[in-house]
Amino acid sequence: MQSFPSEKTKLKENVFSLMEKLLSPKVISALTPLVIAAIGGTIGLTVIINQIDSPQAMGLASSAIAGAAGLARSNDQDRE
After folding, report:
1. pTM for this one?
2. Surface-to-core class of residue 64, CB atoms within 10 Å of its CB (0-12 exposed, 13-18 middle, 19+ buried)
3. How far is CA 32 from CA 9, 18, 20, 26, 68, in A?
4. What are the mean pLDDT values of the chain's consecutive 10-residue runs (80 residues total)?
């Protein structure tokens, strides 16, 4: 008797295949600075909108944005 894969098994295989493609190291390294900059921007906007008088919060926001800028680099080294 031949066993065929179930629809659930096929779905799992398709999801894992898609995740392998989407979460490649290049994609992760490209998205990391964007996520960190978004977090820093969110903290900064929250401090400004709520008029929080906290230099520590603005320091945290600027550090996150600066860290994102440090991570965002061109891939010219990879092309050689």
Report:
1. 0.64
2. buried
3. 31, 19, 17, 10, 8
4. 68 80 82 90 90 88 88 62
Rg (CA), the chain: 21
What secondary structure does DSSP assign to 17-80, as a single string? HHHHHHT-HHHHHHHHHHHHHHHHHHHHHHHHHTT---HHHHHHHHHHHHHHHHH----HHHH-
What pLDDT sits at residue 79?
A: 47
Q: Specify the DSSP class assigned to residue 9.
A: H
Q: Are 71 and 40 in contact (CB under 8 A)?
A: no
Q: Which residue has the tokens 């945290």?
A: 60
In one letter, which amino acid is 49? I
